[in-house]
Amino acid sequence: MVLGAGFGGLELTSRLAAEFGSDLELTLIDRADGFIFGFSKLDVMFGRVTADAVTHAYAQIVKPGVRFVQADITAIDPVARHVSTTAGEFDADILVVALGADLHPEATPGLVEAGHEFYTVAGAFALREVLANFAGGRVVVAVTATPFKCPPAPSETALLMHDLLADRGLLDVSSVTLCMPMPVPIPPSPQASEALLAEFARRGIEFLGPRLVRGLDGDRKVALVTDGDEIPYDLFLGVPVHRAPQVAVDAGLTVDGWIAVNPLTLETQFDGVYAVGDVTSVGTPKAGVFSEGQAVIAARRIAARLRGESSAAEYDGHGLCYLEFGHNAVAQVDVTFRAGQAPFGSMIGPSPELAADKVEFGASRVDRWFGS
Ligand SMILES: Cc1cc2nc3c(=O)[nH]c(=O)nc-3n(C[C@H](O)[C@H](O)[C@H](O)COP(=O)(O)OP(=O)(O)OC[C@H]3O[C@@H](n4cnc5c(N)ncnc54)[C@H](O)[C@@H]3O)c2cc1C
Which terminal Cβ of the chain has fewer Cβ within 10 Å, N or C? Predict the structure, then answer.
């Protein structure tokens, strides 16, 4: 049984389906009716595509041996491997928790009332109209807490916002400020950080780090920064607080807020229970490519276990991320996070060819996850 049909849950499901075909008896549970890539939120928000075009309905999954159940997961018993949902009770031989990170805009004072967030589907999609009607002014893109998904996304948002203002002739009456909790945009890749900082400087985007925005004062239109500073804004685009879903916390699976796993095998402390992706504290950033990489290893280990064999497959912390530079140019950042070593990475691009690669990256996942 796989809980959560996001990047990790879908990759794991498709790997096991490819391995076992109709011999598999896999139940995949998610409250949503379809999958949306994280990067599609930016595409919708900046008016590049419509919301309908980026939703991949789970009803379209065609894999013998896989059953999708749309339901809210309300309780997990990791000892009995029993799961309660709004669609009934389920028991499993092997349980995989891939529930991602929940987002809490309400946890930042003033964010809901006086600002916007672009990380939830609802928040990003609602911004499409807000941005289309924006008449220019001081734009602040900021992170409100750590950890947060897809560390490059705020930098991408600042650049795409700058594109939007330029395309609409609003740069003369506008400014863009990016406030991040790190000293540079992407610490594991100095090359990517340097390229981003150079692009920010070229465009006049102000980069403020390491700082978090702890709240908004809507009356005075200022963002309240951790160091006591204030940043005036007309349009605030925030990254909300992330937490593990409460159902995982209540199940006793979390340690210090996230599910503790063996970082090499993705096993939890409970026999037959694995966890992958953003819901874990595996040591990689919270991003789809890492959830996917973890799912590959968990799938290999589960397949071996189901066959009564053992597997030496170990997670290597490696991921290839795409980074939007605006004006249809995308870079590719190659990063590796391994326990006991400083993270390291390199970058190629940005270029229009890599923008096409990114489209292919998404299309190949849709084929693999939804096709037979
Ligand atoms: C703006 C933005 C841009 C991004 N860009 C990129 C990018 O370019 N590349 C990249 O790799 N990553 C990107 N990401 C990050 C990426 O979207 C996530 O890290 C990734 O989806 C995590 O995968 P996951 O499987 O761990 O969790 P998720 O994909 O979040 O899946 C978790 C699933 O669990 C379900 N769920 C949770 N709780 C329950 C419950 N109680 N009952 C039932 N279902 C439940 C949810 O509905 C969800 O479908 C971006 C994120 C954002 C916000």
Answer: C
